[in-house]
């Protein structure tokens, strides 16, 4: 990390955050974050309100596994123009296609509801998840390729995280208030229509040209459907990644895959937990939209500063510690109608920790990609970050119900949250090893 990067946060002014590119990133971050909880934790709240078992809620959360598989079709996204919207460019064209697909899937879920069975509802949730994962591939590529230097990449990453967190609050807090006073079906229809906000940003954004030049050059030399072109599209990003980072590449992927495991595992049980301890949707939504929003903003700012000031890996270790402690703290709420002050404090701490860890991880993963393979390499890292958590989270309801048979429901929730917080420790150890290895390399080269 160079000196300019360290001093950069202090040089940023309000004008930097109000530049068109940064504002566009904010809106695209919102569009990227909007589907995430609607096919996961918030869907679990809807199902619990309808009397669905915890085990079924946990299993249905497996539709989110789509996010962990996007590396499989990212090479196509990197090299092929989008259908119908190819004139917008490689990145914006796929953004438009995926945003329309997400919006239509949520409208279908609203029309079907739970009356037509969980299989029908889950099928459209799966469509939404695959389309949302595709949207993430191209928005992440647009963010990285649009940045002119590392400092601007940090700025765009912070704007992305801010937009993403606003979307999470909208789908984790505001939607609860809307559902309380209307219905879950109306809420999902409304949020499906909100994907039009991201679609508008897609049409207004500018297509990044640097990566296009590299990709067009590759296409001329090695057409995609030739043997060499197909090999480069599929294997090239991985070969370059492992060649760039050497033996550390596997350690990096392992650390990334374990880092957000606590958050993923506890996620499907959070909203059912609020339901079971007697908190109203109005209360949960209000606290998330007030205390949670302020804490998220503080966490994004602190995470971005820590990443630039102390280095990505050290910021990740700090975020991992905060994340684990905040998740374990939910055990303190496991009693009917817990005190409001305690609920607000834990909610704020969790929002701060999640935002801090999130911006640190996004900045770190963004720094590891190579121009020309941006979408596929970042999809590889993002898939590593979500695949294990997306699989294990499906068992969360079964774990709570199994513990409940021996300890009772509230004690089971307490044990579950403490355990979820603790499973992030291996990632911290791996990042500490990466820091040590990075420290050895300059010494070895100068000796």
Can you walk me through this structure?
Helix content is 80%, strand content 0%. It has a single domain, classed as Up-down Bundle (Growth Hormone, Chain: A), CATH 1.20.1250. The protein is mainly α. The N terminus and C terminus are likely disordered.
Q: Poorly predicted ranges (pLDDT <50, ≥5 residues)?
A: 1-11, 443-447
Radius of gyration: 21 Å
CATH superfamily: MFS general substrate transporter like domains
- End-to-end distance: 21 Å
Largest sheet: none
The CATH architecture term is Up-down Bundle
Helix content: over 70%
Topology order in helix (H) and strand (E) letters: HHHHHHHHHHHHHHHHHHHHHHH
Short description:
This protein has 447 residues and is mainly α.
Helix and strand topology:
Elements: H1 3-11, H2 14-17, H3 20-38, H4 41-49, H5 54-60, H6 74-79, H7 90-112, H8 118-146, H9 150-181, H10 184-193, H11 195-204, H12 210-221, H13 227-234, H14 236-245, H15 248-259, H16 261-276, H17 281-310, H18 312-328, H19 340-366, H20 374-392, H21 396-407, H22 409-422, H23 425-446
């Amino acid at each position: 990390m160079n000196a300019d990067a360290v001093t950069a946060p202090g040089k940023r002014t309000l004008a930097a955050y109000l530049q068109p590119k940064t504002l566009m990133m904010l809106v695209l971050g919102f569009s990227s974050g909007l589907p995430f909880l609607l096919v996961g934790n918030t869907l679990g709240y809807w199902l619990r309100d309808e009397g669905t078992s915890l085990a079924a809620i946990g299993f249905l959360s497996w539709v989110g596994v789509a996010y962990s598989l996007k590396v499989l079709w990212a090479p196509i996204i990197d090299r092929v123009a989008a259908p119908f919207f190819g004139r917008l460019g490689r990145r914006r064209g796929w953004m438009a296609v995926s945003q329309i697909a997400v919006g239509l899937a949520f409208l279908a879920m609203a029309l079907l509801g739970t009356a037509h069975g969980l299989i029908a509802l889950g099928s459209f949730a799966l469509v939404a998840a695959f389309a949302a994962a595709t949207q993430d591939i191209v928005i992440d590529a647009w963010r990285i390729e649009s940045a002119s230097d590392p400092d601007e990449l940090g700025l765009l990453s912070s704007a992305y995280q801010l937009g993403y967190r606003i979307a999470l609050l909208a789908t984790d807090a505001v939607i609860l208030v809307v559902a309380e006073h209307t219905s879950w079906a109306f809420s999902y229809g409304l949020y499906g229509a909100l994907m039009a906000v991201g679609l508008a940003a897609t049409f207004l954004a500018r297509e990044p040209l640097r990566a296009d030049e590299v990709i067009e050059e590759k296409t001329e030399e090695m057409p995609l459907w030739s043997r060499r072109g197909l090999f480069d599209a599929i294997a090239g990003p991985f070969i370059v990644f492992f060649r760039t980072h050497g033996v550390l590449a596997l350690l990096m992927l392992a650390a990334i895959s374990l880092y957000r495991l606590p958050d993923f595992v506890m996620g499907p049980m959070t909203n059912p937990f609020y339901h079971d301890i007697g908190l109203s949707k109005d209360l949960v939504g209000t606290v998330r939209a007030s205390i949670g929003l302020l804490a998220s903003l503080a966490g994004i700012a602190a995470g971005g500063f820590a990443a630039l000031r102390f280095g990505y890996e050290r910021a990740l270790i700090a975020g991992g510690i905060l994340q684990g402690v905040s998740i374990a703290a939910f055990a303190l709420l496991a009693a009917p109608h817990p005190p409001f002050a305690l609920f607000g404090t834990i909610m704020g701490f969790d929002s701060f920790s999640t935002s801090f860890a999130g911006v640190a991880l996004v900045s770190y993963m963004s720094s590891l990609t190579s121009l020309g393979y941006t979408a596929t390499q970042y999809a590889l890292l993002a898939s590593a970050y979500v695949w294990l958590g997306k699989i294990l989270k499906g068992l969360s309801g079964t774990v709570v119900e199994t513990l409940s048979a021996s300890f009772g429901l509230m004690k089971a929730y307490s044990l579950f949250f403490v355990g979820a917080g603790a499973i992030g420790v291996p990632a911290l150890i791996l990042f500490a090893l990466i820091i040590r290895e990075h420290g050895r390399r300059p010494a070895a080269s100068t000796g």
